[in-house]
């Protein structure tokens, strides 16, 4: 009786997972970009004139879409003239929308605000990209091409074949690589890069992830989002990451381990 009960549970879980995965399959993979609308989410702070150059470079890679909206999210972390420059640039760039969010308590709030603003536009796809040319606009078409094959999410990867990371310290490199290894081992994910923030979603996929609720308050939130997408149809695309490393302090590391354990517990309970 015990064997039959276990087999029944396994069969039920497998069926549930298959139904969940099927829910998010992007059915019409043959659509041309000219038939689609795109929202771009990009939190930004203290970029100065480089912010204007970056917006223009990104939009230049997205010209094939029927409609596109570049959502720049700024908050009180911004101490220079980036907000003024973006507001001025928006006057001559109809596809640029500047979001001032003084209530944000940290970078995660800026991203979540961007996701919600993007979803409110009801786009077909949502692109997330970091400012300052750490993510290369020239890599964007690689994500678009992959998404056209019928995926729900395409994650930019520094560690998959063809990807690279430069201008960062060895410490940050090993934190990213080690975080990916540990997450894959504990959560059953299979991505080469679980910490990248350069990614493309269908509207339905991003909505499902946001609806789950993002609890991490540090950089681990990118890993949390990818974990929630593990039952969807996902893939990776190589990107060339070029940026000096941001400091990862004890607070961020503590947040990562706390949420990794939470997600591991959820996995054991069959909830991710």
Give the SSE order as H and E letters: HEHEHEHEHEEHEHHEEH
Number of beta-strand segments: 9
* CATH superfamily placement: Spore Coat Polysaccharide Biosynthesis Protein SpsA, Chain A
CATH C-level category: Alpha Beta
Percent of residues in β-strands: 15-25%
Distance between the termini: 28 Å
GO molecular function, one term: dolichyl-phosphate beta-D-mannosyltransferase activity
Family: Belongs to the glycosyltransferase 2 family.
Organism: uncultured Chthoniobacterales bacterium
Protein name: Glycosyltransferase 2-like domain-containing protein
Task: Give a topology summary.
Elements: H1 2-23, E1 37-43, H2 49-60, E2 67-74, H3 82-90, E3 96-100, H4 107-120, E4 125-128, H5 140-147, E5 153-157, E6 164-166, H6 170-187, E7 199-202, H7 203-212, H8 221-228, E8 234-238, E9 240-242, H9 250-268
Parallel strand pairs: 1-2, 1-4, 2-3, 5-8, 6-9
Antiparallel strand pairs: 4-7, 5-7
Helix pairs in contact: 4-7
Summarize the structure.
By secondary structure, the chain is α/β, with parallel strands linked by helices. The protein has helices at residues 2-23, 49-60, 82-90, 107-120, 140-147, 170-187, 203-212, 221-228, 250-268; strands at residues 37-43, 67-74, 96-100, 125-128, 153-157, 164-166, 199-202, 234-238, 240-242. Helix 4 (107-120) crosses helix 7 (203-212).
